Amino acid sequence: MTHTRTIRLTVNGTTRQVRAEPGHTLLDLLRDDLELTGTKACCLVGECGACTVSMNGRIVDSCLVLAAEADGAEVTTIEAVAAGGGLDPLQQAFLDSGAVQCGYCTPGQVMAARDLLARVPHPSVAQIQEAMAGNLCRCGCYRQITEAVQAAAAAVDR
Amino acid sequence: MNGIVGASAQRAGGRARVTGAQRYLGDIHLPGLLHAKLVTLDCAHARIRSVDTSAARRVPGVALVLSAADLPQPVPRFGPQYRDRPVLATGETKYHGEPVAAVAAQTQDAAEEAARLVRVDYDELPAVCSLAAALAPDAPLVADPALRPGDPLAGTNVLHEHRYGWGDVTAARSDLVVAGRYTFPMVTHFAIERHAFIAAPDGDGIRIWSTIQHPYWLQRIIAELLHLPLAKVQVLAPDLGGGFGGKQHAKYEPLVALMALRSGRPVRLLLTLEETFQAVRRTSAEVHVRTGFRADGSITFREVDADYLLGAYADIADRVVGKGSYTSCGPYRVPAARILARSVLSHTPPATAFRGFGSPQVLWAGESNMNEAARALGLDPLELRLRNLPRRGEVFIPGDKPADGQWDQTIRKTAELIGWGSPLPPGRGRGLALGLKSGPTTGLSYATVRLLADGSVVMSAGTSDMGQGARTVYAQLVSDELGVPMDRITLIMGDTAAVCYDQQTSASRSTVLMGNAVLQACREIQAKVKAMAVRLYQVGETDVDVAHGLVRLPGRKVPVTDILGPGLGPLGGEVIGNGESRKEAEPGHPLSGSAAFYEFNCTAVEAEVDTGTGDVALARYATVSDVGRAINPLQVRGQDEGAAVQGLGHTLMEHYVLAEDGRIRNLGAIDYRIPTSMDLPAELYSDVVENADGPGPYGSKGMSEGALLAVAPAVAAAVTDATGAVVRDLPLSPENVWRALTQRALTQRALTQRALTQRALTQRACTADGDLMKEMRDESHSES
Questions:
Q1: Which of B16, B17, B674 sits opposite A138 (nearest CB)?
Q2: CATH number at residue B50
Q3: From B671, which residue of chain A is nearest by alpha-carbon distance?
Q4: Contact indicator for B467, B355 with CB cutoff of 8 Å
Q5: Among B173, B196, B231, B517, whose CB has the most other CB atoms within 10 angstroms?
Q6: Which among B492, B481, B509 has a CA at the least distance from the CA of B593?
Q7: Superfamily covering domain A5-80
Q8: Helix (H) or strand (E) holding B482
Q9: Is the overall model pTM greater than 0.90, yes or no?
Q10: Tens digits of per-residue pLDDT, B67-118?
Q11: B329 phi and psi, to 5 degrees?
């Protein structure tokens, strides 16, 4: 009855091939098929940002991207951010600033912040808060997240 | 001390959280797992005529379809306070989203398809979804009176009445009485991690994974329901992605457990965000407050009538009502009080604990009432608070714990941070409010600390870490007491089979109650190491002291790690310490126990209101909590500022929109908005008062809820200060604020008209302003 489709994509630098069910999203593909559970699921309607990943150099809510749309794409997830076992300065800044409480939204926050810093190396507070507005944190760490992004921006200069 | 207590040690588990390696419940995959889906009706209250599961059963991959008819009869019921909630709806659904049936299948897709194919034949019935409807004399009864034997209120929708009081309210002589009616909306926890449950048969027992704050309470519920010994029920509770009270008690674990036993396979139910809205919410409330004052501002009496709207099943919400309303008089010297709080059932999702536990509702009313009183008395709202504030050690609720802090320091610090009394830019207003919450009234926590042969530590505690940072705090305590570096400590939590009992993770108790148990366990280890040293060095007991990882002997100090080898002997082993911390019940106390501590907070706000749209912008925000001692200042700040941001949700934007038939019209993240980074106050200040006067380790107090308590009345007071408009209904959404502004303009116009007419009639030589002020005052006091 169902028609699966073969999706080829590059995830964190590795080429992967997955048979995806119709209607399955990139989020399903990452979490269920590739077992990359660092990307989190929450609202499934593109409002909370927990499932944020980078696709072809842009961040997307992976719950809103059909797996089929990711065919041929280059995807980066939270699992690839800490290079070579050490933490990325942004991840370290999240810890140092107290920007992590329960941590469930953190992978999405880190991906969104990473995207912002790639586009705007020295964002203002207003730019940070606007860029991060699509990533909900119910623990309410917004001030600490803002500080972490600022600290990471400064750390890159050193 | 090695300086770790009071330092901002990095969050235990932090690294796993920033790399995506942290395993939340939804990240667990078990072989042979079945995926479950609930079958619900798109209405609140319905009589179920029949449930036809035949088409659902034919969907390929479906392993099991259960409706109430497939369960033991009568359908088992459970609940933390009353055994009122059936495992599946039986006979009737009583709220929008109550499951009528459940499907388990090989894949989530198959489960969802089958769930859509379950045919439920039902008659929709009238639903009571508001206090007015539920309290109407002819209201349909939410709970079957047969389930309330011997209960005189069984013929009503009032589940319980809580009455408190002291002194003689009627005898109080007041120069001014200020009265008002305040409403608090229905809001939901919206933890970013949705509720999730797995159950798996395990030999002659069962294993349950749950996003649960109280794993031991869940263990008891499942054991009773399945007639199993506690020892055959293992509850695994991985660290939560946010709890906020919503994950305290059993929800669908009993259902998933029965599905696992029936299918013989592990079954997992992951709720959608929409389903979590239908599973947990805060009690909404309508609170009437009357407070009497003398001209100097001292309170003469307070009367509170608080109706809280519960859902169809009690969950823990009746305790929320009882405990929250108990402190309705706030942190004040009130010579006479009469408090009546009612738990009212309705055809809405079961209300449960939510950060603040019933206090934000009565504080919204009580503190707004204080601010209105300050205006009427012509007193500074800060001064009015200070005049009525009990001193440390002073009893302010007869029979309960006296004030346990120098609370005026908290108020003064807040005032300093916000610049209280300094000139305001045009269009801005300031407001201030106090928060008070009673801490745990009973408690029991065990901790085990094992000092291993190489000086590293494995410790276990039954607390749930839901983001508040309990793991970090315990590791800091152990590190300090035993002199072991943080990275050589492993914490085991969230497994009832491996970790000793803890009553619950709630009421901001864990640093205090479990923290004391951890300290005691460390002290037992120190005593054992001391005995080792006495034996090894042939010295007298009084010649040895063990503290912070060092053994002090006459004339020298030896690291504990140096004597562990010879002390333990050739077989090796470990030194085990156990700690136990109890807060016993107190017979006769209205809450069955006095407060272990109080959470005390002061919040002050500077706001600007767009009078065209009603939009409230927060220019400055200050929150200060009396925490006794901050074990980890960074985490304390995170909890305080996070609570403030969460409180801005119910203050400015959050509320369920219920249709008249009880359907929730704004399920999910698109239509129900919570604060984002854009909602942060432009300037946010937080601080703590530390006098080491709490009952926890190093004088700490619980502190995770305090900064949420006073958000709404502080913001509302700033709105009034800026515009003159008084808002008594939350949230202070643009719509509600705009309505209040419009109402005020209309009232003012009418008053001016009246004043002008009167002046023309009497030709009295007085200013219109004076009359206007007096009449407005009269008006604001005429409500009750």
A1: B674
A2: 3.90.1170.50
A3: A47
A4: no
A5: B517
A6: B509
A7: Beta-grasp domain (3.10.20.30)
A8: helix B470-482
A9: yes
A10: 999 999 999 999 999 999 999 999 999 999 999 999 999 999 999 999 999 9
A11: -85, 0
